[in-house]
Amino acid sequence: MSYRRRLERIKQDIPIVEVLRDYGYAVRVDSGQREQQFSCNLHGDGKDGKPSARVYPGSNSWYCFACDRTRDAVATVREREGIGFKEALQLLEHKFNLPPLPWEDEEPRQEGISLALQLDQSISPTKTFEDARREVVSLLDMLTIDRTLPLDDILPFWEGLDQLTHKVEHEEIPETKGIAACTQFWNRLLTLLHGEEQ
Prior knowledge:
The protein is an alpha+beta fold. It has helices at residues 3-13, 16-22, 73-81, 85-95, 109-117, 129-145, 151-169, 175-197; strands at residues 36-38, 53-56, 61-64, 69-71. Helix 3 packs across helix 4 (85-95). The protein is globular and about 45 Å long.
């Protein structure tokens, strides 16, 4: 069963505010799509005198300005519990009573490698950051679903892309730098793929 499918279901079915509330963060679960500021205990000495984190129900994630990091439900559980990705999926599925997903056969890893290596060696010329981001997402989706690379190799790219998207959308960095970063993600993924093929 695809970890990516399980991750997508968690992002869709488990509100991030409920995960945060379960860990004692001062957020309201009845606030709808309203963004909320709260204290983060994942940086420094764990005491956040000025609330430095903000939850974004629309993207089902939160960002801490002190940590300079975006987290979803799985990343939150991993950090709070000190567990791996698979264990975090299992914990969330159990805690929020998500039934097992139906089984689907998955392609062998070698087929995924061959398919991915047919891609161009650089991201196609784009006009917007969203175009570049979409290309990286497509590649990451394929690598995740096909199990082309180990999940531990792919997850940092998903997390990095989430952080990059947040910074571009909030105009913390210009769109041109966002496009350049997407190109770097693309090239690093292809480098990993070439190493996997050998």
